[in-house]
Amino acid sequence: MIARTLDDALAPIKDGCLLAIPRESTGVAMEATRALIRRGIKRLRLIALPTSSLQADLLIGAGCVDELSRQSG
């Protein structure tokens, strides 16, 4: 399935989802982060690959995150 809009692409992300967050140098879509914050998503569990990033910081600061893990490698 190809999402036609950003909202369509983000629709499967619900409160409590587990998300992998790459570092900024990988071309993170920051508008997706802002859209999740606007939606008021809560209780996200983030896995930072390999370290947390601006995207994770924004989600944490907005109160969207319950848990942050780091994946080495």
Give the secondary structure arrangement, pairings included.
Elements: H1 6-10, E1 18-22, H2 30-39, E2 44-49, H3 54-61, E3 65-70
Parallel strand pairs: 1-2, 2-3
Can you walk through the features of this model?
By secondary structure, the protein is an alpha/beta fold. It contains three helices and three strands, in the order H-E-H-E-H-E. Strands 1-2-3 form a three-stranded parallel β-sheet, covered by helices on one side. Strand 2, helix 3 and strand 3 form a beta-alpha-beta unit. It is globular, with a radius of gyration of 12 Å.
Tell me, what's the shape?
globular
Topology as a string of helices (H) and strands (E): HEHEHE
The largest sheet, given as strand count, sense and whether it forms a barrel, is: 3 strands, parallel
The termini sit apart by: 30 Å
Note the beta-strand portion. Answer: 15-25%
In brief, what are we looking at here?
The protein is α/β, with parallel strands linked by helices. Helix content is 32%, strand content 23%.
